[in-house]
Specification:
Structural class: alpha/beta
Order of helices and strands: EHEHHEEEHEHHEHEHEEEEHEHHH
Strand order of the largest sheet: 9-8-7-12-10-13-11
Distance between the termini: 36 Å
Shape: globular
């Protein structure tokens, strides 16, 4: 019997924290979440939070869903921006293993492939749960519009401020997304000390989640870091202000996009008290009650900003050189005194 709607499917996911966040992302968009458990996810997760991992086979997927969409940065993949599903067709969006990507069994069975375009040469993929949220956001909204191309995207890119991250791994994943989408620096307001003033083990885990040790992460309150902006936009998930897809988010370096951690603070208070006159913009969600994950909402917001900012037309040599996807396998230690060594095993946890 065929299944209606969209399902999120994890193919060989290993990290049970990623799996849990994927399940929450699916619930947020009213979608089913399934896993093709080939890497011991069920055993690793156990009975945590009382949520069982719904296991599924390739045969069951092909029976239930006429359209299997591989979500991977593989050759020939279409951009998620502007991609539209056929009407009344049940579809499964399949994301791959954190290190290996999609399995051969899935790639042999899928009907189409889509990707989130990346701008960075250092970070070529998002956290798997964050990527899942982006994919569901665009597919459930009918694809929105295509990505802007050509011109001078750096002149359209706004500054980015991440405020009040309550969890070092969630914040690290958001920083990873910022780098992947092409920001060369990211302003961070860290009142809780989860990034700049945390214990050594938290710094190691946060940097592993960020996948980048040399990325320019500027503290918003550092001496000499005073910046002025003509326009400030505060993003929220509570339905306040203009919908994200209708807001203008590509007004260049004199525009500041603020993404607060709403587990810690109220976006409306931030817009009125700290950034007087700021514009509120909200991420359109079908449900008002959901399990909050900062990485999901920060990455969805960045994905839409990046779509509007766009990127330069790729040269023929760039297109010819694109081959099978590669995945992060190492993270260099931070230079200088107090550097943190992060092992491959640490990276595999994120």
């Amino acid at each position: 019997m065929k299944t209606a709607g969209i399902a999120l499917v994890g193919d060989g996911i290993e990290n049970h924290h990623n799996a849990q966040t994927m399940m929450h992302a699916a619930e947020m968009f009213g979608c089913t979440c399934l896993f093709r458990d080939t890497q011991g996810l069920t055993e690793a997760r156990g009975d945590e939070d009382g949520l069982a991992v719904p296991d599924v086979t390739i045969a069951a997927l092909t029976e239930a869903f006429p359209l299997l969409i591989g979500f991977d940065n593989s050759a020939g993949a279409q951009a998620i921006y502007g991609y539209r599903l056929p009407r009344s067709t049940a579809a499964a969006l399949i994301v791959g293993n954190e290190r290996r990507g999609l399995s051969r069994e899935v790639t042999a069975s899928m009907s189409a492939a889509v990707e989130i375009p990346m701008d960075s040469k250092a970070i070529n993929c998002l956290n798997v749960a964050a990527a899942s949220g982006v994919g569901l956001y665009y597919l459930t909204r009918g694809g929105v519009g295509r990505m802007r191309a050509g011109g001078s995207p750096d002149g359209r890119r706004p500054e980015l401020l991440l405020v009040g991250g309550d969890d070092h791994v969630e914040l690290g994943s958001a920083i990873r997304s910022a780098c992947a989408f092409g920001w060369r620096r990211c302003l961070i307001d860290d009142p809780g000390g989860v990034w700049f003033g945390s214990e050594r083990w938290k710094r190691a885990e946060g940097r592993a989640a960020a996948r980048q040790s040399k990325y320019h992460q500027a503290g918003a309150g550092e001496p000499g870091s005073r910046l002025s902006f003509r326009e400030v936009v505060v993003v929220n998930t509570r339905g306040m202000g203009t919908p994200l897809g209708q807001a203008r988010l590509s007004n260049g370096p004199e525009q500041l996009i603020v993404i607060p951690d709403e587990a810690r603070m109220c976006a409306a208070d931030l817009a009125t008290e700290r950034f007087a006159g700021a514009t509120l913009v909200h991420i359109e969600l079908p449900h008002s009650e959901f399990a909050y994950h900062y990485r999901l909402f920060a990455t969805i917001a960045m994905a839409e900003i990046y779509r509007q900012v766009g990127r330069r037309e790729r040269s023929r040599s760039d297109r010819r050189g694109r081959e099978a996807p590669f995945y992060d396998k190492a993270l260099a230690a931070e230079p200088g005194e107090g550097g943190i060594e992060v092992s491959l095993e640490d990276l595999r946890e994120y």
